[in-house]
Specification:
Blueprint (H helix, E strand, L loop, with lengths): L5 H4 L6 H4 L19 H5 L1 E4 L4 E4 L32 E4 L1 E10 H6 L6 H23 L14 E2 L8 H10 L6 E4 L1 H13 L6 E4 L2 E6 L2 E5 L9 E7 L8 E5 L6 E3 L2 E8 L4 E14 L5 E8 L8
Parallel strand pairs: 1-11, 5-15, 6-9
Antiparallel strand pairs: 2-3, 4-14, 6-10, 7-8, 8-9, 10-15, 11-14, 12-13, 13-14
Length: about 300
């Protein structure tokens, strides 16, 4: 049986394990995988709303303005007027709220190198903003998917999203369309259909990121467009109040305002030494005219092809 050399077992220098007792590890802030770029929130025009109410006034559909191209004669000019709908739709801001609790012992003792209250608030705010984008799309009252006219709803020709389908959306929102919004898997499915037809979509750089485009219009990804049983939706919209498009709504001047429509307020410390912070975000979204948005429904995302 071989014997061990005692010389080899005797350390000749300080080892890693012992050395680490005097070293400080560089620590990151907490990472949260559910945080997304939230492109929809960034790309919308946000309109400040007084008293939390935004009324969309429209012209009556049957109103026509009579005009005349004057000639050299002295004909009588037509008389006309533009009639309005008597009561426009009113949008009320919706609240996304939560109360953050932080034990004062934790914030007092364990806030170096990263401030515990700051990090707790940062992660809470990120979660609230993720919920905000989901509500902008899916809220049962003001969510975009629930406020698209029947004439603006399109079905795919073959299930998978094809160039023809997106062209049909463009024909419905042809007045200055801003961007498509789709789940990342729907964008990938569209890319496969383009590759199969030999027309790979070009890309464009926006905000330092690359996006696929179709007819010059970017396809913006959002995982808030849900996939159910392998099917999802693709939206095309026009944005901006001056373009009679889609606009986001927020309440300005909130107490403890951090960003548009978002406030953080200290609520006090209870008898258990727990500090509480009220985090609130007020928002909504409005479709100013019916042709400002269209949707391609029942889009299949699991169609693949063999390339030879």
């Amino acid at each position: 049986m071989a014997t061990k050399d005692p010389v080899l077992e005797t350390p000749t220098a300080l080892g890693d394990v012992a050395a680490r007792t005097l070293a400080n590890a560089t620590k990151t802030v907490p990472m949260m995988g559910t945080i997304t770029p939230r492109w929809l929130v960034h790309l919308l025009q946000w309109v400040p709303v007084e008293a939390g109410i935004y009324r969309v006034n429209r012209v009556k559909d049957d109103t026509s303005v009579t005009v005349d191209c004057s000639g050299l004669d002295e004909r009588v000019l037509p008389q006309t007027f533009v009639d309005y709908e008597e009561w426009g739709r009113e949008y009320r801001l919706s609240a996304v709220n939560t109360v953050l609790d932080v034990h004062t012992r934790v914030s007092d003792l364990y806030s170096s190198p990263h401030n515990q209250i700051h990090e707790q608030l940062r992660l809470t705010i990120e979660s609230i903003k993720e919920r905000q984008e989901s509500e902008l799309l899916n809220h049962k009252e003001y969510g975009l998917l629930n406020n698209i006219a029947a004439s603006q709803r399109v079905q795919p020709r073959t299930g998978a999203p094809t160039p023809d389908d997106l062209d049909e959306l463009i024909s419905r929102v042809w007045k200055e369309p801003a961007f498509f919004l789709a789940h990342p898997k729907a964008i990938a499915a569209f890319g496969r259909e383009c590759t199969r037809r030999g027309v790979p979509p070009p890309t464009v750089s926006l905000f330092g990121s690359q996006f696929l485009t179709w007819r010059g219009i970017p396809l913006i990804p959002s995982d808030k467009l849900k996939i159910e049983k392998g099917k999802t939706s693709i939206i095309l919209l026009r944005t901006g109040e001056s373009r009679q498009g889609v606009v986001g709504l927020y309440q300005p001047g909130l107490p403890g305002e951090q960003t548009k429509g978002l406030s953080v307020r200290f609520m006090g410390i209870n008898h258990k030494a727990i500090a509480s912070y009220l985090v609130s975000l007020y928002c909504s979204v409005a479709v100013l005219t019916e042709d400002a948005i269209a949707v391609l429904e029942n889009v299949s995302v699991d169609n693949y092809h063999e390339y030879k």
